[in-house]
Design goal:
Layout (H helix, E strand, L loop, with lengths): L1 E2 L6 E2 L2 E4 L12 H13 L4 E3 L8 H10 L8 E6 L1 E5 L5 E2 L4 E4 L2 E5 L3 H15 L6 E5 L5 H17 L5 E6 L3 H9 L4 E5 L13 H8 L2 E5 L15 E2 L2 E2 L2 H16 L4 H11 L3 E7 L3 H12 L4 H9 L36
Parallel strand pairs: 3-4, 3-16, 4-5, 5-10, 10-11, 11-12, 12-13, 13-16
Antiparallel strand pairs: 1-2, 6-9, 7-8, 14-15
Helix pairs in contact: 1-2, 1-9, 3-4, 5-6, 8-9
């Protein structure tokens, strides 16, 4: 287990992202959702992440129900604030926002102090729990002023009151997350899709700042929403069809991995986990089979020759940390790497 920043909250090296069980893109049955959480637990995962945004609260309801089978002190749970759910009678579905659920609510952006507290209270009700361990400001891209002026201080106050153990922000970009790291006292940031085998933009600003400030990073989107899980024509990259140039790059990485007796999935997860700032890799899954596969890939050792050949082919920058030559990055619940030579929602 890895500690988040200066907090007392610990997370497993592999975390369960619950956007999928909130019917991301397509329906998931209640039984399938429960079995996915159960498989994660059986695989050693002890960190679970959700948000009101995921399925208009469905993800929180399903995750809370599934986790009630386990001791509350045995796992870490994170949710997010910034979107308050308001009931609506408009009908229809929520597919325009990516979720196959009835449009029973509408999302209202609110990073005010009152909005933060209301969102958290609503989440606890949906989860059926009396506390969560981590709360993130969720996608404050277009709400920076309110997020920094009101939302963050509200989270800091909740942490000071002992209502939550750790606080941070979750986004699909690095610039504002770096600002949170440098200008606030966050414990952790969740960065999705910006530190992968195809996109190392977080290596420029966010990850060095996190190391310097002692802030933990949770990496989401290790597969860039699909392309690095299964490189093929029509695969998605950051939730849109992958451009041909990136597809070609992913296919080259896949072929190289195969030559070294490993998989592109194992390599993608190992790469994310190898950076010393990274406390956990968050993977979005929607079935027990996907969970078990991710856990197996995460625990696999990726040969040192693969990383060297990846660099020789200019498919990975030389400054990007990779796992140690004779070790995997560790088991699901094990420690992350401790330096440059050491070793999935998916949505933030």
């Amino acid at each position: 287990m890895n500690r988040l920043g200066g907090s007392g909250v610990e997370v497993s090296a592999l975390a369960f992202g619950a956007a999928g069980i909130g019917n991301l893109y397509s329906e998931v049955s209640g039984e399938q959702a429960y079995e996915a959480v159960q498989a994660a637990w059986q695989s050693g995962v002890r960190a679970f992440d959700t948000a009101p945004h995921y399925g208009l609260g469905l993800s929180e309801r399903r995750l809370g129900a599934a986790l009630r089978a386990y001791p509350r002190t045995a796992y870490t749970l994170s949710t997010k604030v910034g979107r308050v759910l308001e009931p609506t009678t408009g009908g229809g579905d929520d597919l325009a926002n990516g979720f196959a659920v009835p449009a029973t609510h509408r999302r209202v952006w609110d990073f005010s102090a009152d909005g933060v507290r209301r969102s958290l209270a609503d989440s606890l009700e949906r989860l059926g729990l009396d506390r969560v361990d981590v709360v993130y400001l969720h996608d404050p891209d277009d709400h920076a002023e309110q997020a920094f002026r009101e939302g963050y201080p509200a989270l800091e106050k909740l942490r000071g009151e002992g209502v939550v153990g750790a606080i941070g922000a979750g986004m699909n970009q690095t610039a504002m997350l770096t600002r949170f790291v440098r200008e606030t006292d966050v414990d952790v940031v969740l960065c999705a899709g910006r530190y992968t085998l195809l996109d190392q933009s977080a290596l420029t600003d966010l990850l060095p700042a996190a190391v310097e400030r002692g802030v933990s990073v949770v990496i989401g989107g290790a597969f860039n929403s699909g392309l690095l899980a299964d490189p093929r024509p029509g695969a998605t990259y950051n939730y849109a069809t992958a451009p041909q140039q990136l597809l070609d790059r992913a296919l080259r990485i896949q072929a190289l991995a195969a030559r070294h007796g490993t998989t592109v999935r194992a390599a993608a997860l190992a790469f994310c986990a190898a950076h010393p700032a990274v406390a956990s890799v968050l993977v979005g899954t929607r079935s027990a089979a996907e969970v078990r596969d991710c856990a197996e890939q995460f625990a696999a050792t990726v040969p040192a020759g693969f990383w060297q050949e990846l660099r020789d082919a200019d498919l990975l920058p030389p400054e990007a940390p990779v796992p140690a030559q004779d070790l995997s990055h560790g088991p699901v619940t094990g420690p992350r790497g401790s330096g440059p030579a050491q070793g999935a929602e998916e949505r933030p």
